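Here's a chain:
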Amino acid sequence: MSWLTALEWAGALTGLAGAFILATNSRFSPIGWLAFLLANFLMVGFALAGGHWGLLTQQVGFTFTSLLGIYRSGLLRSER
């Protein structure tokens, strides 16, 4: 398996894991946003390396939605 194929599959599976975690609607659900963010980074790398410009555009947009989800879920709040 090439590194590019590994990057593609890692991004796809990480994104699916994020969707599953978020869909559980449990106390662990916010971690799904972190999985989405990791998947975004992996897929951005895949898109850049392979010249998939439409996918790159989509993943940049999804990165912003992942960051918004992280913010709104309270993952950035510090417990003082």
